[in-house]
Fold this protein.
Amino acid sequence: MPSLHSVSMMWPFMLWGLALVPIVVGSYIALRGRNHWPAFLMLLGLIVLLLAMTRPRAILLLPSRLETVMLAIDSSGSMRANDVQPSRIELAQAAAKESGDELGDGHEAATGTAGQEHDPRDGHLGRSHG
């Protein structure tokens, strides 16, 4: 697995172009001796261009995306049916606890409930009771 901050260049041979910088500076000094700011900015642009031409790339692995587990348990009436023992919801809760134990220490857990937002029988939006 690559490190979290590995950077590589697709065309590292383009760094040889930086060898031109001293030649360009020497030529400029030999030909001209006043107002160096435009030439300095041009040289800075050349250096940035040469670095960009190496085509740097980075592999960034975001830990939050790699280690996020979300588990939802249905708590509708069908899960509360008692056709199997223990009930389906108790089996789901036991499986969730087992999965949480497999994650080990250092992990956070949060629980919550959702209420009914819409009663399909009357066609009106209802308030959450959960």
Q: What stands out?
A: The CA atoms of residues 67 and 107 lie 10 Å apart. The chain has two domains: 6-61, 69-103.
